[in-house]
Amino acid sequence: VERQNQAGMARNENVVNCLYPKRDAIFKLICFPWAGGSSNYFAKWGQTIHDSVEVHSIRLAGRESRWNEPFASDPDQLIEEIVCALLPVLQDKPFAFFGHSMGSYTALLTALQLKNKHKLEPIHLFLSSAVIPREKNSQVIKLEHMAEEQTKSFLVTFGGTPKDLIDKEFIQQVSPKLKADGHIFQKYNFDSLPFLPTISCDLSCFWGSEDIVKDMKGWKEITSGNLHAHVLPGDHFYFMETSNENFIKDYITKCLELSMLVSV
To answer: Residue ranges of the Thioesterase domain (predicted)?
Structure first.
C-alpha cells in the first residue's frame, strides 16, 4: 500500500509542477498553460509572487518530465487526470485558477468537475486571452492539420516566440505539442454552459490591447459572482512583458487576500 501511495504521489507531482513550495502560504494558485505550452513558465511565478501564494502549474503529457508519455487525446480523461492530481493539493488551503488561452478552458472544465464531483470550488478564476466558451468553436484554429509554413505563420501571428527562434528545427519541436493540444481543444464541449451560471466565484479576465481576442466580458454568463476585466498592452502573449506580469501577480495576490477579508 505504501508503495502504491508513493507511486501515486510521484504521479501527481508529474502532473502538478510546484517549483517553489511555500509551507506557510495562505493560498494556492493553480496555473493552466496555453496550447503547446509547458508548465515551467507559470511555475516560475512562485519565485516572485507574494509569499502568501504558492504556485502550481499543470504539466500535460508529452512534455518536460512527461516527454515519454503519449499526448492526451480524450478531453474527459485529461480533466479527470488533472482533477485526481489536484485533489491532494487542494484539500488544506483556499485555491484559485489562472489559465491562458486554451488553459482558460482547461481551468474552467477542471473547476466544474471539482465542484460537481468533489464539492470544491476555486475562490477566484483568473482567465486570459480566451473568447467566451459558447463562441469557442467559431474561434478554433485547426492546429492539428497545420503544415510547417502555417505553423510558422501561427507562431508569428500569436506572438510569444521571438521571430529569430522560429526556424525549421524549432517548428519540428513545437508542432507535435501544438497539434496534440489543438486536437484536445477542438473536443472541449461547452454546449450546456450558456443556459445558467455554472460557478459562483468571482472571475477576472485579462487580454492584450493587440490581442486576437478583443473582449472577454461575456464570461460573466458562467458565474453568479462578479467579473472584472483588464486590457493590458501587448499581443496574445502580453503577460510575457515584465510590467504586465508583475501587474497580474500583484492583482492576483490582492484579490485572494481581499477574498479572505470578505469571507470573514
So the answer is: 28-254
